[in-house]
Amino acid sequence: MKTIFLKMQSKKLFTLLCVVxxxxxxxxxxxxxxxxxxxxxxxxxAPLEDIDATNKKxxxxxxxxxxxxxxxxxxxxxxxxxxxxxxxxNENYVESEKYPICTFKGKINEAVDFKKDGENKITxxxxxxxxxxxxxxxxxxTLTIKGDNITxxxxxxxxxxxxxxxxxxxxxxxxxxxxxxxxNATLAPYVKK
Length: 193
Description:
- The protein is an alpha+beta fold.
- It has a single domain, classed as Lipid/polyisoprenoid-binding, YceI-like (Lipocalin), CATH 2.40.128.
- It contains two helices and nine strands; from the N terminus they run H-E-E-E-E-H-E-E-E-E-E.
- An eight-stranded antiparallel beta barrel has the order 1-3-4-5-6-7-8-9.
- It starts with a helix and ends with a strand.
- The N terminus is likely disordered.
């Protein structure tokens, strides 16, 4: 049942991002992440136990004519080394049933020549919606162009309190106030089927 739910969420997420990404952009060049070529991970270092999780089910859409980029992440797709960590994450912290998807919609600040191979240092300013809280953030990263592929890498921190994620007092020693987030996504031109 959980697998069916995740597949439904992924399809809805991609449809949503494509519709939002293509509004008013009849001739825009769209890129979408390749299957299994995206990893979003987070790490929390705390006195009692380090917590890390990885998600390979995110959807990423980039519109090169406007520098707009969007991410969508199904929260239930994060995988942890221990099943109990995954259960606590989904039920107690991010409340995945109530807030199933985290989204980021932003724009690359720098001018990028998408026809030229090479690595570009970028910053992306936009809004992350996590746990029902939308906050404007700026994320540093790199965008590497090689042929038809675009690879996006970013590393940033978020404060759990900024997104009203409450840590039960008995777990305060287990969760850091700031969580390190890493993004790695390889995108290719999107061809509508």
